[in-house]
Design a protein that fits this description.
The chain is of the alpha+beta class and about 150 residues long. It is built from four helices and five strands. The chain has helices spanning about 20-35, 45-65, 95-100, 110-125, and strands at about 10-15, 70-75, 80-90, 125-130, 140-145. A five-stranded antiparallel sheet has the order 1-2-3-5-4, covered by helices on one side. A hairpin with a 3-residue loop joins strand 2 and strand 3 (about 80-90). Helix 1 (about 20-35) runs antiparallel to helix 2 (about 45-65) and helix 2 packs antiparallel against helix 4. The longest helix has 19 residues, at about 45-65. It is globular and about 35 Å long. The termini are close together. The relative contact order is 0.20.
């Protein structure tokens, strides 16, 4: 599934402080945006998508806040696709597919969270990619899921 953000007619951006309340706010914002865009909250992709989003924002809050006081979430959707990205200004780019295969570096909660993200994403037929900032001091993790 290869799409560009421009191909998705619905978009929203949220920037919040990299603190624990960001997780709930990001999820609530996603629920509100999806409702406004006409995405059925009972669609089988929505629940897992909200969990994926929560895990990614949690990781930014727990592991990137020391270098990134803010987290930005980009939400987008089209008729048959949902996409979102979580961006922070920490330079570490986690090996997403390594989290599933057990070849990623790191241990503990962050690795388990990324494994959950990847298992859900791949199980839904979606894609995940890490895109580094041009200056090398930040990244976005993009998730694309079929609707």
């Amino acid at each position: 599934m290869m799409l560009t953000l421009e191909a998705l007619p619905h978009r929203h951006v949220l920037t919040v402080q990299a603190r624990p309340p960001a997780v709930r706010l990001a999820r609530q914002t996603a629920e509100q945006a999806l409702a406004e865009w006409g995405v059925n909250p009972g669609h089988p992709t929505v629940g897992p998508a909200l969990l994926i989003l929560s895990e990614l924002v949690t990781n930014s809050v727990r592991h990137a806040a020391v270098l990134s006081p803010q987290v930005t979430v980009i939400y987008a959707a089209g008729a048959d696709c949902l996409a979102f990205a979580v961006h922070d200004r920490h330079p570490y780019q986690p090996p997403l597919y390594g989290a599933v295969t057990g070849t990623g570096t790191g241990t503990g909660r962050a690795t388990r969270g990324l494994a959950t993200v990847m298992e859900l994403t791949l199980g839904l037929g979606g894609t995940a990619v890490v895109r580094g900032d041009a200056d090398g001091n930040g990244k976005s993790i993009w998730i694309t899921l079929p609707l």
